[in-house]
Structures are given as C-alpha cells and as structure tokens.
Amino acid sequence: MKLSIFSRLALGYFVIFVILGIVNGYTLWQLHQISRGTKQIINIDERILEIKKKLVDNILSQMEYEKKFAITKDSIFYEQFLSSQSDFQNYLKDALYIANTKDKTTYLNQINNSYSLYNALVIDDLESIKNKKHFSIVKNEIEKERLVDNILEDLKALETSIMKDVHRRMNVLSEAGSSSRKLTLIMWVTALVLVLFTSFFTTRSITKPLTSLMEKTKEISKGIFKSDLKITSPPEMMELTSAFNAMCDKLNKVEKMKSDFFSTMSHELRTPLTSIKEGIGLLQEGVGGTVTEKQQKLLSILTEESNRLIGLVNSLLDIAKMEAGMMTYNFGHENIGLLIQQSIQEVAPLVESKKIKIWLETTDELTHPRIDRERMLQVLRNLISNAIKFSSEHGQITISAYLEERGLLISVQDTGPGIPKENLYAIFGKFQQPPVKTSEWTKGTGLGLAIVKNIVVAHGGEVWAESDIGQGSTFFVLLPF
Question: DSSP strand E in 248-395: where?
C-alpha cells in the first residue's frame, strides 16, 4: 500500500505516541506499586505500632488504677479503670480491623484472650473489694500479673513481627524499585531506538525521493535531459515524477529541434558564405577592376566578417557532429609541448595587440600516445584565446603541462576578472558565456568551451575551471594515458 506524505507523517507520529505511551504507562504503574507499598507501611504498620504503644500504656494504667482503688476504695479510680478498659478494647478492636497478616492477627487474638481473662479477674477482685471479700485477692493477683506479662510479651512480639514485616517490605520495595529502574531504563532506551528508527524511516521515505528529484534537477541545470527518474512512492511524488519526466522528454525534443535547426542552418549557410568570401577575394585582387583604397578597407572588413561567420558555422557543425557522435578522431602519438607552442604562435597578433606576457612551463619532450592533433590544437586555441579575451592590457597568461599520477595535465591561467563559483560548471555548456565582462570584452558565440569539453571527453579526459572573482581563472585539461 502506497501511503501519502500526510499518512506517513501521521502514522509515524502515532507510532511514536504509542511507544512513549507504553513506556510512560509502565513507569506510572511501577510508581503506583511503590507508592502502594509505602502507603501500606504508613497506614497499617505504623498505625498498629502506635496502637501497640497505647495498649502498653493502657494496660499499665489499668493495673495502677486497680491498685489505687484497692487501697483507697475511691470510686474515681474505679471509673478511670473502666475508662481505660474501654479504651484498651477499642484500640485492640482497631488493630484487629486493620491487621493485614496472619502473624499480626494471631498476636492480637492472643492479646485479646489474655486481656479477657485479665479483665474478668480484675472485675472479680473489684467486686470483692466493693463487697468486702478479700479471700481471693492474692490468688487473683498472681494470675493477673501472669496475664499482663503475657499481654506485654505478645505486644512486644507483635512489634518485632511488624518491624520484620516492614523491613521485608522495604527490601521488596527497594528490589522492585531497582528492577523498575533497570527495566524502565531498558524500555526508555528501546523506546528511544524505536522512536529514532521510526523518525528516520518516516523522514527518509519522504526525503529520499526529494533528494532524487533534487539531483535530477541539477542534471537538468547541466543540460542533461534524461527522463529516467523513477519514484513510485509516495503518491504525490510519483505524480510529480511523471510530470518531471514528461518535462524532460519535451526538453529533449526542444534540444533536438534546436540542434537540428543549427545543423541545417550551418549546412545551408556554409556554401553561400564560402562563395561570398571567394567573391570578396576576387574583388580584392582586382578581377572586377581597379579597387580604391576606401573600397579596399571595406573589402577587408567584409573578409573579416565573412571569416567570423564561417568560423561560427564551422563551430556549429562541429558541436552538432560531436553531440551526434559523428565526429571523426585520428588519435596518434603527439608532442604536447610543440602543440602548445604552435597555438601560441597562431594567437601572437592578439597577444601583441594587448601587450600580454605568456609564460610557458613545459618541455619539448612531453608526449602523449593518444591525441588527435587537429582537435587538440582546437582545444588549446580556444583556451588561450579565451584567456587573452578576458585579460586586460599588460596582463599575464601562464600555460603549463606536466605529468601526474592520473595522466597529462594542461593548465591555462589568466589574470582576468575571474568567474563566480556558481558559474564554473555552466560555462562549458553551449551558448554560455562568463557573466563577468572586461572593458575590452567582445561577445562571442559561447561555443568555444562546449567544443573543448566534447573534444576532451572524446579523449577520455576531464576539463574543469577554478576561479575567484578578481583573481583570474585557471582552466585544466586532464588526459589519461
């Protein structure tokens, strides 16, 4: 099932929410268990210990009131005894009500039984005192002391049992807390990994097709119009891909139409331009009659313009052949140093007119086994001519050629205005010109560097440029062996 971008985001956030909800729910449950155990200690064990203290105080008070009443026969002590008796029974009842273990209930029942016997003896003694019967007092006194000792021992045993129970529960809570911390930490780490994985997967499923689309857009900006983009998900990107490929197909058709047009136009213009040039040459030779000085100047201008147009037509034909793969190359063993020197000699008039210094850094023995002489001369002419065009008067051009690990490296460095970095790749496209113009700059065809690139690529090499604004430019040609 192909999910839309919205569905992917919604599902991703839902999964993250569920994972965090489970972890938080477990954490809250563990906290509740610990809180529950703590409350049990506070609400039950602490409460019973408080009652135990009151029971001890109360039973001792009853013994005191009983003895005082036996001596003084004062009814106030008798009433205080009865009040303490009632309190003891209420305390004992409360303790039995909240007792939550068998040991606590057993001790409290033993205390209750002993107290019932003790209470019966005390009431019997007090009634005897009130009725002036003293024969059983000594006997009951011994039994009462034994019962009180039993009550106090059971209360002490109850306290010991409670303290052991509290200690046991505290250990259980401590172990549970430690286990909970470890398990919670494991769950949080697991949840974090799952959240990161979910976030990565969701984001990646969206950004990956966007990255592919961005890379394809960069290819189009470089003049590569292949309609080979394949994105099947999400649906929105699939529709965009389909439209994008359709656009590439149309651009390819437009590019082909343009190339066909220039190729046809070049073929159609070449013959008449050649005829015009030959006709001008005949006129300059005086075939049509005597030529005045003024007419000679006009004919010279016509000759220059004819040559420029023929050069443009030849460039258009060359680039059309190169793109169609119809250009013929004659590779052979050539001396690159001699080719550079020949190219410099051919542009010598331009160099002299702008008073530019050319430095050559190479040797006559530097050769390459696979070079098309004429095409490589065309590469060197174009690069050196561009360097001259964009260098100001009294500038400097450095041409070097040397061997490196990758092959033969040729560089042409000028002292011109430089090229913005964002245009360094685009200038090798057809009809592209550097955006920076010098005061001596004249508009060209924009085909020179495109031809250079095609020829170098046909040699299996690479061509690129490095430049900084105001620091000049350097063009590199790498020819592997």
Answer: 331-335, 357-361, 367-372
Closest CA to 343 of 263, 415, 410: 410
Q: How many domains does the chain have?
A: 3
Burial track 390-404 (b if 16+ CB lie within 10 A, e otherwise) = bbeeebebbbbbeee
**In terms of C-beta density within 10 A (0-12 exposed, 13-18 middle, 19 or more buried), how is residue 113 classed?**
middle
Range of the domain at 410: 330-479
Cα–Cα dist 197/319, whole Å? 51
Q: Rg of the chain over CA atoms, in angstroms? A: 54
Determine whether 332 is exposed, middle or buried from the number of CB atoms within 10 Å of its CB (0-12, 13-18, 19+).
exposed
Q: Mind giving me the DSSP string for 123-188? A: HHHHHHHHTT--TTHHHHHHHHHHHHHHHHHHHHHHHHHHHHHHHHHHHHHHHHHHHHHHHHHHHH
Helix pair 336-346, 373-390: axis angle to 10 deg: 50
Torsion over CA: 119, 120, 126, 130 (sign): positive
- Report yes or no: 417 and 440 within 8 Å, Cβ to Cβ: no
Distance CA 67, CA 126 (A): 10
Measure the CA–CA gap between 211 and 226, rounded to whole angstroms. Answer: 17
The secondary element (H helix, E strand) that includes residue 466 is strand 462-467
Last residue of a domain, one of 200, 217, 245: 200
Q: Is the domain of 393 the same as that of 270?
A: no
In this structure, the answer to whether residues 80 and 196 fall within a common structural domain is yes
How far apart, in whole angstroms, are the C-alpha atoms of residue 56 and residue 30?
38
Contact 453, 463 (CB under 8 A): yes
List the strands of the sheet with 396-404, edge to edge.
357-361, 396-404, 407-413, 473-479, 462-467
**Do 245 and 260 fall within a single domain?**
yes
Please report the pLDDT score of residue 135 as a whole number.
Answer: 47
Question: What's the chain's average pLDDT?
Answer: 81
pTM: 0.51
Q: Are residues 392 and 453 in the same domain?
A: yes
Task: Say if residues 158 and 49 touch (Cβ distance below 8 Å).
Answer: no
The C-alpha atoms of residue 144 and residue 123 are separated, in whole angstroms, by: 11
Query: What span, in angstroms and rounded, lies between the C-alpha atoms of 187 and 192?
Result: 8
Q: Report how far residue 141's alpha carbon sits from residue 207's, in angstroms, rounded to the nearest whole number.
A: 95
Are 307 and 357 in the same domain? no
- Mean pLDDT by runs of 10 across the 481 residues of the chain is 68 75 73 64 77 89 84 83 89 86 87 88 76 56 85 88 78 70 75 76 78 80 73 76 83 74 66 77 76 81 79 75 79 91 89 90 82 92 91 91 90 91 83 62 71 92 91 93 82
| Token digits of residue 134 | 């003293």
